[in-house]
Amino acid sequence: MAANLFTTIERQLRLLTRPQTLADLHNIAGATIAPLVERGFDREEDPYGVPWAPSKAAQREGRKTLTDTGALRRGVRWKADSRALVFSTSGPAQREGYDRVHQYGASWTIHHHPRTNRFISASRARRLRSVVPVTDVVLPARPFLPDRRGMPRLYEARVGAAFRRYLRSRFGGP
């Protein structure tokens, strides 16, 4: 009896570390987390439940923060295989770099040339003496994906429940 139990456990442990099982688990995690990322956009909050700083433009236009074109939200993608699950962005949000600006925040100084009445780049401003900085612009971080703080509790609970369902269906048990 004990020999059969140990044989069964050994077989299940081998199955658990097979690439297909790991790929299944990573895909389950991706499919579970993707709607939670969407939920963050709907609620205007980061994955940890902290509200985003409201966008002045969104307030002025009567819309939600990070929804101007919808490109950032639509650009969130995930890919899973036996080695990992990776979330990333694609499309204009990634090409134009505003995915990183919103995820991590950014700051810069806008320079103004007094004679031409035009905005100029920081590198050109350094070469000219008559340039006056107009303003420092600060965009606060509005994380839409988990960061260094680790796996958000809600994500952990949902992924854990999905893993338990998968493992029960695959290997049996309560």
What are the SSEs and their pairings?
Blueprint: H1 2-16, H2 19-43, H3 56-61, H4 71-75, E1 76-80, E2 85-89, H5 92-95, H6 98-104, E3 106-113, E4 118-120, H7 122-127, E5 132-139, H8 153-171
Antiparallel strand pairs: 1-2, 3-4, 3-5
Helix pairs in contact: 2-8
Description:
The protein contains eight helices and five strands; from the N terminus they run ααααββααββαβα. The model has no long low-confidence stretch (mean pLDDT 88). The strands form two sheets. It has a three-stranded antiparallel beta sheet with strand order 4-3-5. It has one domain. The chain is elongated, with a radius of gyration of 24 Å.
Features:
two-stranded antiparallel sheet; 174 residues; alpha+beta; three-stranded antiparallel sheet
Write the H/E string, N to C.
Answer: HHHHEEHHEEHEH
Q: Compute the number of helices.
A: 8
Query: Averaged pLDDT, please?
Result: 88
Number of domains: 1
Let me know the number of strands. Answer: 5
Supply the helix-strand structural class: alpha+beta
Strand content: 15-25%
Rg, rounded, reads 24 Å
Report strand order across the widest sheet: 4-3-5
In one word, what is the shape?
Answer: elongated
End-to-end distance, in Å?
A: 20 Å
Poorly predicted spans:
none
Main sheet: strands, sense, barrel: 3 strands, antiparallel
Q: Give the % helix.
A: 40-55%
Summarize the model shown.
This protein is an alpha+beta fold and 174 residues long. The protein has helices at residues 2-16, 19-43, 56-61, 71-75, 92-95, 98-104, 122-127, 153-171, and strands at residues 76-80, 85-89, 106-113, 118-120, 132-139.
